[in-house]
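Section 5.1 Outputs to date
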Amino acid sequence: MRHDINPRLLRAFVAVAEELHFTRAAARLFVAQQALSRDIRHLERVWGRALFERDTRHVALTREGQRLLPLVRHVLAAQEQLGRELEQTPAGGSARPLIVDVALHGSTGPRVLAAAREAAPGLEFVSRFHSGLTRAAAEMADGRLDVSFGRVAGLPRAVRAGLEHRLIRYDRLAVHLPPEHRLAALPHVPLAALAGETVYAAAGNEDTTEWTDYARALFAGRGIGLAPPFPKIEGEAEFRRVMRKHGWSVLANVDFSDVPEMARRPLTDPVPLSPVSLVWRRGLRHPGVRALADAAQALGTAGDWLERPPDSWLPDADRTLAAESTHSF
């Protein structure tokens, strides 16, 4: 097709035009750099004009690229508007099923989803348990997922630009310890007592990089070692085997279901808080998003989810982002 306007190719063009850097644009789109370069070459070929001037150190829009960029943005905006209209008023007059990644069993997401289902029985919510806002953000950008939960500050700024979010809870954290561990007899564990320990926080799992980023900030300057990168661990038995073999403790929220053969102890002095936000694709207008937000607010009010103890700790990035929490639906 001579005038290909495949939205994926148009998004590739806009990303490179705004970043003027193929590596950054590829990261923003969650694609390989080679695939992005291939898409741009394809677009230039079928449109019959050069869009970029590029060499090993420099990327710039050509005059044609500059002329077409606002038109491409207009096409993408119109497509997004059409998508919003179709999502809001689908055929038959009822909202389509909303796809929700609730992250982990025992976390905030399942409780919010259960409350939303009870309050809005006429809506259909389809739940998934993928774990990790990094992966969920990529799927939301691709249109395969609508809503998720997690720590927004751990995502790259370019990724956050495609999302809307509302802070709904501060999770208090705990450490899971082998039963014979020197700290297992304590009712709670001061952070300073973990100095010299190696704690697992999913380093190496590309689905949950926002969680590893949080742990890195928490451990910095405290003498706590972050367990080295390890392939994503799937299954309770395999998780237990790896932790036992390496002698690692595990960082988790206090509501996380107990890890078999490990003792869960809340962390104190200070109390680490991990922000949890309701996160949805920017521009998504669906009654299910409002139902989830209303459910989260009701649960949060009843359970003091946004309470911050005087001796609590948050990463600087999360303090800054709290002011950016969005509220539109």
